[in-house]
Amino acid sequence: MTVTATATAPSPVLCARQVRADFADAGSAIIHALDNVSANFPSGHLTAIVGPSGSGKTSLIHALAGILVPQHGEIAFGSTVISRLNERQRDTWRLAHCGMVFQDFRLIDELDPLSNTLLPAQFRRARLPDGLRERARELLAGFGLPLRAGPVKALSRGEQQRVALARALLLDPPVILADEPTASLDRENAQRIADALRALARSGKTVVAVTHDERLAALADTVLTMKSGQLIETVARPGVSE
């Protein structure tokens, strides 16, 4: 599995500033999903977000993507305050700047791997250029995925996860946000995906990964630890990705 990352110019810094997001549970009790979280996610860095289940890791990555809008604080990408945009504007920003790998993949079961990978481009264009189709094929091949026809629902969870990563990289976005990108993979493929994410960071992209995988966290330039919606520790590790 080989994924080549092309060096890119530095992107604006993605950051969370005193972000708070609250939810009411079934009994109307307030849950502090994010409680005054502040962090910077610079380009050229792989940031791992770790912590126990329910600690706010997925809420944070959804806030960074503009999927979740905080009640307080802001999410910004350079001069663009994403959390102040309306829903359509946030969708447009995400399509142009952000590749997402969701924990539940969010693939269309009836489509084949190539069609799923090409989905982000189809929101932009009625007719896809041949070069983009070739990029999709190269990404799938690089992740060791079959190009044969057939629905993705017939693939293993590990294969589906790699399709989701190929889809996230299709439009070469400056920001990659991945929620448990190695969770469904065997040890060998998990290490290869972790290495690919590190290579993307080294090429100049902003890469943020929620993970329970110690091997992926060990490759990160910065490790953020969350608990009960709070960011309780930030560990910077200069030189890890060099």
Structure, explained:
The chain is of the alpha/beta class and 242 residues long. The protein has a domain at 14-106 and 172-236: P-loop containing nucleotide triphosphate hydrolases (Rossmann fold). It is built from eight helices and ten strands. It has helices spanning 57-64, 87-97, 113-117, 119-122, 130-142, 157-169, 187-202, 214-218; strands spanning 14-24, 30-41, 45-50, 72-77, 80-81, 98-101, 175-179, 206-210, 222-227, 230-236. A six-stranded mixed beta sheet has the order 6-7-8-3-9-10. α7 links the parallel β7 (175-179) and β8 (206-210). The radius of gyration is 17 Å and the shape is globular. The two termini are 21 Å apart. The mean pLDDT is 90.
Number of distinct beta strands? 10
Strand content: 25-35%
**How far is it from the N-terminal to the C-terminal residue, by CA?**
21 Å
Q: How are strands sequenced across the largest beta sheet?
A: 6-7-8-3-9-10
Helical amount among residues, as a percent range?
A: 25-40%
Describe the protein's topology.
Layout lengths: L13 E11 L5 E12 L3 E6 L6 H8 L7 E6 L2 E2 L5 H11 E4 L11 H5 L1 H4 L7 H13 L14 H13 L5 E5 L7 H16 L3 E5 L3 H5 L3 E6 L2 E7 L6
Parallel strand pairs: 3-8, 3-9, 6-7, 7-8
Antiparallel strand pairs: 1-2, 1-4, 4-5, 9-10
